[in-house]
Specification:
Blueprint: E1 7-9, H1 24-32, H2 34-43, E2 48-52, E3 63-68, E4 71-76, H3 96-115, H4 133-159, H5 164-175, H6 187-190, H7 205-217
Parallel strand pairs: 2-4
Antiparallel strand pairs: 1-2, 3-4
Length: 221
């Protein structure tokens, strides 16, 4: 559950880019993810609030999503966070907005799972061996991260197919340093989508991601 010590921002107003409340970095990230947020808010009617941490805490990631009081909370933790853009360090400047867009799509994937009431749920009939409470929590988190990664890739394939290879390679690079059993070790799923052809099925980006995600469940580490 998210803490309430957030500075609330208006969602997708025309003035947000020029708002004195926003830093230059926050403005760039919101602009890069604006098409994803518009889709989520206007077409899907997802209950999303954008919040900004007045001061990032130790180990905060720049962009995260939580769920509180029936609403998704897209949280920017960039103020006082010297490593906020480290994830983009190896990305050419011209491509950084695209990677940020993919990260926002990833978080919308989380929001979709929350709002559909399937958070930490698996498909009906899927069998899984019982594990310790800690191991199950790790596994459940990894599965959700994998689903969100696939939503991001499905989004890129739909909106920027010519850039799919670059984004997919970057995502694999980001995920590879994690330990094999880590909560963000989603490479087993990412390897199932080396090209955009993995998302050739009909349906929304969530449906397309789900098709690949189910395959990954059968061979997860």
């Amino acid at each position: 559950m998210l803490k309430r010590a957030f500075l609330p921002l208006l969602l997708l107003t025309s003035a947000y880019a020029a708002s004195a409340e926003l830093t230059e970095m926050e403005t760039r990230w919101l602009q890069a993810g604006s098409s994803v947020l518009a889709y989520a808010k206007q077409e899907l009617k997802l209950p999303i609030d954008i919040t900004v941490q007045p001061q990032a805490r130790a180990n905060d990631v720049p962009l995260a999503l939580g769920y509180q009081d029936g609403r998704c909370k897209l949280v920017l933790s960039m103020r006082g966070n010297p490593s906020a853009e480290d994830i983009l360090a190896d990305v050419p400047s011209a491509q950084r907005p695209l990677m940020i867009e993919a990260m926002v799509a990833h978080e919308i994937g989380h929001c979709w799972r929350y709002t559909q009431g399937v958070w930490h749920a698996v498909p009906a009939g899927f069998e899984q061996a019982p594990q310790s409470e800690q191991a199950e929590a790790l596994r459940d988190t990894r599965r959700e991260e994998a689903y969100a990664d696939l939503v991001a890739l499905a989004w890129i394939q739909q909106r920027h197919p010519e850039q799919y290879t670059n984004v997919a390679a970057w995502m694999r690079h980001v995920r590879e340093p994690s330990p094999a059993a880590g909560s963000h070790s989603t490479v087993a799923w990412l390897q199932l989508a080396p090209t955009g052809a993995a998302f050739a099925s009909a349906g929304s980006v969530f449906d397309q991601a789900n098709t690949v995600w189910r395959k990954g469940l059968m061979q997860e580490p």
